[in-house]
């Protein structure tokens, strides 16, 4: 993950450094041109001042005084007449100065103008200002050595270079810190996903940010929790299957060995064979329910919905289960208005009701009653199955739809349940897009309520 930190840091550095270089270049050009323009403007102004002095006090002494003033300065002055003949010069006239003096001087503005501004390659920058007196006409040329300007720009470049290096260094440090801060949650998430890939789902990620990274952290944490829950369920599921299959197989093997003994009487042998038959039936039921759950998990089963009468379906179910309820000493009652129809899969609907009724019968004592009650309100149908059994403790209610979960584990073999009936009910209810609610009080009974909306 350090690679992504380096990549992000380099990317930000390149972008910011490019912006800084562009800004520094524009700023440098602006300052450099501003300084050159100031020098040219000052040179024009100086020439105009000399012109004004000449026009006011034009004599030989004034001319020499102007030249003497420029001897001690960083500029040079050359005064010529109208024909271009040099009247006086503060410096020796060389080839470069002479070439500028030979330039055409017609139609010059009163305030003068710049006649040479190429400070990069030329030896001088120069200006010209015309003057006119009652005695003579001429021109005041001002020259400034470009070496000073070049030195000024060189010094400016040096300052900008130092500022640029310092800025790049500070920028690199800031980006390094920021990239570490940005990639820190990514590094944690990478380590977390690595643990997930290795089967370690017990990870804890925390994020205080409300941005996309925070949402990603929450998603990974949710995924880890779900995987951890699935892993726990899988282990418990496999352990439960192993236990549920091992127990009847142990009974079958043991009683088979006993039943093969020669000295056993017919009645005793039949009792052992009956046990073997019962255990085989339990195994068959378990395998059948496991296959049903596998189909539900893989969505390989289909829901074929049709409209049918709820009451007629419940009456058929009650008649089929009534003998087993009578054998257990439990009354089975049905309260259902005749005009209620539901849109559902009749086979799956029967499977849901049968599982709930068998659950009520298994956990209800003799002398109690189980009631099926149907109610309709607007576009909602409620089918409630209420028993007067031992009830479900409140701390067990949230888990009763989990596979192989039993409230009373000590009586699991006596009651004959597999712990899969309610799981199948929940899966089938969800497949119909219905809801199922549970309310229970210990030693007073349990009520399962199926809520079907929009199924009229």
Automatic annotation (TrEMBL):
<keyword id="KW-0418">Kinase</keyword>
<dbReference type="InterPro" id="IPR004358">
    <property type="entry name" value="Sig_transdc_His_kin-like_C"/>
</dbReference>
<keyword id="KW-0597">Phosphoprotein</keyword>
<dbReference type="InterPro" id="IPR003660">
    <property type="entry name" value="HAMP_dom"/>
</dbReference>
<keyword id="KW-0067">ATP-binding</keyword>
<dbReference type="GO" id="GO:0016036">
    <property type="term" value="P:cellular response to phosphate starvation"/>
</dbReference>
<protein>
    <recommendedName>
        <fullName>histidine kinase</fullName>
        <ecNumber>2.7.13.3</ecNumber>
    </recommendedName>
</protein>
<dbReference type="InterPro" id="IPR050351">
    <property type="entry name" value="BphY/WalK/GraS-like"/>
</dbReference>
<keyword id="KW-0472">Membrane</keyword>
<dbReference type="GO" id="GO:0004721">
    <property type="term" value="F:phosphoprotein phosphatase activity"/>
</dbReference>
<feature type="transmembrane region" description="Helical">
    <location>
        <begin position="6"/>
        <end position="27"/>
    </location>
</feature>
<dbReference type="Pfam" id="PF00672">
    <property type="entry name" value="HAMP"/>
</dbReference>
<dbReference type="InterPro" id="IPR036890">
    <property type="entry name" value="HATPase_C_sf"/>
</dbReference>
<dbReference type="InterPro" id="IPR005467">
    <property type="entry name" value="His_kinase_dom"/>
</dbReference>
<dbReference type="Pfam" id="PF00512">
    <property type="entry name" value="HisKA"/>
</dbReference>
<feature type="domain" description="HAMP">
    <location>
        <begin position="180"/>
        <end position="232"/>
    </location>
</feature>
<keyword id="KW-0902">Two-component regulatory system</keyword>
<keyword id="KW-0808">Transferase</keyword>
<feature type="domain" description="Histidine kinase">
    <location>
        <begin position="240"/>
        <end position="456"/>
    </location>
</feature>
<dbReference type="InterPro" id="IPR036097">
    <property type="entry name" value="HisK_dim/P_sf"/>
</dbReference>
<keyword id="KW-1003">Cell membrane</keyword>
<feature type="transmembrane region" description="Helical">
    <location>
        <begin position="160"/>
        <end position="182"/>
    </location>
</feature>
<keyword id="KW-1133">Transmembrane helix</keyword>
<dbReference type="GO" id="GO:0000155">
    <property type="term" value="F:phosphorelay sensor kinase activity"/>
</dbReference>
<dbReference type="InterPro" id="IPR003594">
    <property type="entry name" value="HATPase_dom"/>
</dbReference>
<dbReference type="GO" id="GO:0005886">
    <property type="term" value="C:plasma membrane"/>
</dbReference>
<dbReference type="Pfam" id="PF02518">
    <property type="entry name" value="HATPase_c"/>
</dbReference>
<dbReference type="GO" id="GO:0005524">
    <property type="term" value="F:ATP binding"/>
</dbReference>
<keyword id="KW-0812">Transmembrane</keyword>
<keyword id="KW-0547">Nucleotide-binding</keyword>
<dbReference type="InterPro" id="IPR003661">
    <property type="entry name" value="HisK_dim/P_dom"/>
</dbReference>
